[in-house]
């Protein structure tokens, strides 16, 4: 059986010189890779107590929804600005190459619910930090953050040091 890292395609110098882009499409584009990713991620949080899974558009949906389904938990969408139909809360945050806004339905969580945040990647930690702020603004408690890949060299873990972070794959470089 292949290792989970074997399903990740690495593209040198994308989107700019010196960057090693870790392409998740080769994981989800292979049935065995997708199953291994979801199973591995789910296994990392088997000891974690949480009520709800939340995932960010769009790759957080890909990994978070099957985990929520497997564990019979609700799934909460965190989306880009203007994509949710009801009343939302929003957070602006910095990206490596600009700014962005994430939103969540204001009534997506009940006060005190423990939330597992799921995404494909943590790099600098900006998106993850924004998701944490949204969950807390809606009355939830972040039980943990679960990602497929962590780019440890970009030190995103430091930005969310007060929260549990589980990574299925850790890349030491940038």
Topology, element by element:
Layout: E1 9-12, E2 20-23, H1 25-28, H2 31-44, E3 52-56, H3 59-70, E4 75-80, E5 88-95, E6 98-105, E7 114-122, H4 126-137, E8 141-151, H5 156-159, E9 165-171
Parallel strand pairs: 3-4, 3-7, 7-8, 8-9
Antiparallel strand pairs: 1-2, 4-6, 5-6
Helix pairs in contact: 2-3
How would you describe what is shown here?
The chain has 174 residues and is an alpha/beta fold. The chain is built from five helices and nine strands. The chain has a seven-stranded mixed sheet, with helices on both faces. Strands 1-2 form a two-stranded antiparallel ribbon. Helix 2 crosses helix 3. It is globular, with a radius of gyration of 15 Å. The two termini are 27 Å apart. The mean pLDDT is 95.
